[in-house]
Structure formats: C-alpha cells, structure tokens
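Posting for a labmate who doesn't have an account.
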Amino acid sequence: MYPKKSESTRPERSPLHRKRTSRERKFSALEIILILVCFAVLVFCLYKLLPKTAEYRKSAKTYRGIREDAVITPSPDQSSSGSGNASRSDADTINWESFKGMDVVAWLMLDDISYPVLQGDDNSEYLHALPDHTYNYGGSILLDSVNSRYFNDQNSIIYGHNMADGSMFGKFRSRYVNAGYRDHTFCLYLPDGTRRTYTFFSVLTTEAGSQVYTCTFQNSPSFLDWQNMLRKSTRYENSPKPDVNARFVSLSTCDGMAGTTRRLVIIGKETNLETIQQPASWYVPPELKDPVR
C-alpha cells in the first residue's frame, strides 16, 4: 500500500522567512510612496517652469524685434575699423524715432548684450515689464529712478536680471569675473546723439544697498574714497585711476538664485564721449527738463 500523503507537501516557512517577506512588502509600499512624491514634485516644477519658459521666449522675441528696428548697422564696407571692444560695430547708430513716447533713456551695448535702457517713476515699474508695459518676468534693463536720465551723475546705476537663459545680465557671472576682461569696455548710446564709452573700473560682488550703490557724493574726498573702495574690492585690477571729475555707470545683477541679496556689479568709468548722429526729434535738452530726471 502507498504511504498516506500529508495534507500539504510544502515545507513550513520559518518565522525568519515570514518576517523578511513582511519587510519586503513594507519596502515596496515605501517605494510607491516615494515615486508618487517624486511625480508630484515633477508636476509642480513643470507647473512653475513652463510658464516662465514661455515668458523667456516672449522676452527674447520682443527684444529681438526691438533690436532689428532700433540698431542700425552699416554694411561692412561702410563701417569704420574699430577695436571691436566697445560694441558690435563702431559705426552702429540708434533709430531713436522708434522710441518716441516711451521711457527709453539709453541703449546699452556690452559685446553681444544689446538692450534699451528704461527709467520708470520707480524701480518697480519695469522690473517685470517689457517696454510696452506688458508683464514679463524678465522685465527690462532699467536705470535707477533716482538717477538723471542724462547720465550726468557721478554714478548712474543700471539694473538687469540674472536670467537663467543667459539673456539680460545672465552672462555676467560666467564671463566678466574673468581677469581676461581687464580694461574691457561697454557703451551707452543716448538720444542726444552721443555714444559714451566706459572702461571697466571694478568688477565686484556686494550686498544690495551697500555703498557701491551711492549715486552722488557730498564732496571730492568722499567721491575719491568711494573709488578707492571699488579698486580694493575688485576681482581684478583695471587701468583707470580715481578722478574727482569722473563719471561712472554701474551695471548690477543678482549674484545667485532669485531672492538673494548678493549682487554682482560691473562699474565702468567714462573714458570717451563722441557725437555720432543727430539727436532724436523728441529729445529735450537738460536745461529745458526737470534737472532731477
């Protein structure tokens, strides 16, 4: 006769095995939770980034159109031979008539950085607005509202966002902290028909609201002290020397993530002023204008 079969031929699992299986089940549940959390974070990031990416594209398209209408570059056989340091072409001029009725006070050129400079009644007016007042995160390059629009202050401050796509002043950190840019220059074109060239005087990092952002000085010694402070704080030494009669333009942007109080500033000393075209038809000389603005 055959031996009697047991009710179950499966070996009984040890308590240790059952404990391990229980742990595996808990770990799998934890993995699912983590996956769901990561997915939620991804959805949130996309929710935040996609609209901003769309605004970046809109900003780039807007300023590309503005540049095409405003910057007049002659053909190569007409342009003069220049250093290639001050602007894209030493023969560029600005179609100021395209800015009639707008708050454009200058045009800035620093290598491939080329933008109109606006000035509002306060610094928030164009912080997140295009020149036509349309909302855009990137906003506009703007002159401090306390400065004179004629750039005759001892220090004129121009702000620009540190944009992640490299637009506005987004290239400052990766490019101009390099000592290879010693004595580099940038230009401001003004609606009076002049072009002003500024040679790098100091490139430094500071806090928002520091002494670097002083616009006017009570006396010559305080102005010279300010210039010497800039030279001591600079990341690399430049040739221009302190001068009681000098005029400066400071280009300021954030030095870090949004919300930081750290600032990266390029301070240029005016080293050349030349008249390159007729004043805009709407230009009002300073003697006929509010001396503050």
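Reply:
Got it, the structure tokens are right above this. The chain has a mean pLDDT of 85.
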